[in-house]
Specification:
232 residues, ten-stranded antiparallel beta sheet, disordered N terminus
């Protein structure tokens, strides 16, 4: 369940309602509307790319688009299909309440935040996931174009956020060009997965200048916002 979503450029920013929700709702039963209110309303130097989306996780537009894109991708190592996903495939959680928002810069860099209501055992399992040695380097093909990907992950991860987190980087290099032509630029995507009371969150940063430090800084802000808004 769950994926890294690069996001898409879009409209001018709009401010989400940041009023704390009423207390008394069980932390393990957040609705998608509550999660939507707990998303970051803004990120410095970024513009919101459209309105936030909420509903069942597998019904979110960005998640559906990503799933369709994945069907066009051929991997040289099929076992590595979930490396660029923030969450794994968990039984019974693909329809969990969720909310997602995306921000963009004029340079093409994007930030996507996702909140999903899941049981604590599922959240712990997701944070504990690690990329196996076989998938530290792999190749993908879309159409007739191959790209090479390198995973960057520290195990154990010492950069803990909330009740536990993991950070993964994926550096992508396009196909080697013909001799004498310019090498393609590297593009990085960094995602942070963290868990707290009754929910799992991801922050994904995608672009040529994306860094681990930025992803983790935004993740900490996302955690502070969610803890302030979601009922305890």
């Amino acid at each position: 369940m769950g994926v890294f979503v690069a996001g898409c450029a879009g409209n001018s920013p709009s401010q989400a309602d940041s009023t704390p929700l009423p207390t008394g709702t069980a932390a393990s039963a957040y609705t998608s509307d509550q999660l939507r209110q707990a998303l970051l309303p803004a990120i410095a130097t970024y513009v919101r790319a459209g309105e936030p989306d909420s509903g069942p996780y597998n019904g979110l537009k960005a998640i559906r688009n990503f799933a369709q894109l994945q069907q066009q991708v051929v991997l040289d190592k099929p076992k590595c299909a979930q490396v660029n996903q923030a969450f794994g495939d968990q039984n019974g959680t693909t329809a969990a309440p969720a909310a997602l928002t995306t921000f963009a810069r004029a340079t093409g860099q994007t930030v996507t935040e996702t909140l999903v209501a899941v049981p604590d055992d599922v959240a712990k399992e997701e944070v504990a996931r690690r990329v196996g040695s076989l998938c530290r380097v792999f190749r993908t093909k879309v159409g007739d174009q191959w790209s090479t990907h390198q995973v960057v992950e520290n195990t154990p991860d010492r950069h803990l956020i909330a009740d536990g987190s993991r950070t993964v980087g994926l550096v992508t290099m396009g196909a080697e060009p013909p001799r004498g032509q310019r090498r393609p630029e590297k593009v990085a995507m960094w995602f942070v997965v963290f868990r707290s009371r009754g929910y799992l969150a991801t922050i994904s940063v995608y672009g040529p200048t994306a860094t681990r430090a930025e992803a983790e800084s935004i993740a900490r802000s996302a955690y502070d916002q969610a803890e302030r808004i979601l009922p305890k």
